[in-house]
Amino acid sequence: MSILDKAIAAITPPESDEARAKARAKAEAAARPGDWLSQILGHHRGIEAQFAAVKAAPDAATRRAEQKKLGILLTGHSIAEEAAIYPALAADKQVGHAELAYQEQSAAKMEMGLLERLDPMSEDYLDKLGHIEGAVAHHVYSEEGTWFTELAESVSAEDQARIALRYAEEYGRYMGAGA
Fold it and tell me: Which one is the CATH code of 31-175: 1.20.120.520, 2.60.120.560, 3.40.50.1480, 1.20.1250.20?
């Protein structure tokens, strides 16, 4: 972990597991079957599981393969949010949240690219992966705890349907028809 990464981690400690669970429960309560929020929650769970798969990989080749899957999930998810959800946040007077979310996802993509340069079985790799996982967890916490639940409560049923369709289209476009 770089000196900058360590300084940021010291200044902004991660949320507790309890706080994250509370945010997830709040988002799950606001979600409806098939809506954009339920789609996103499913993708968040898939991303979390894929981080675990990368860490659990027993050898370099398997770890790289799992890392590639993680990168694909993160990118597909972020493209869909950036195309459908963040504009809806901005329209809902959450411009600052939308801008921060874009920045966080750009940073995660850059860090994933840097991860590719490291020996997958090294301590540096695991440190970098942990940093990325922590940043993604914080991002998810913000989305599930306030940003997306507020959006789900404030937009019309017509807008909810439009957002869900747009999110699914963008995710499917990147991930393939079976996504």
Answer: 1.20.120.520
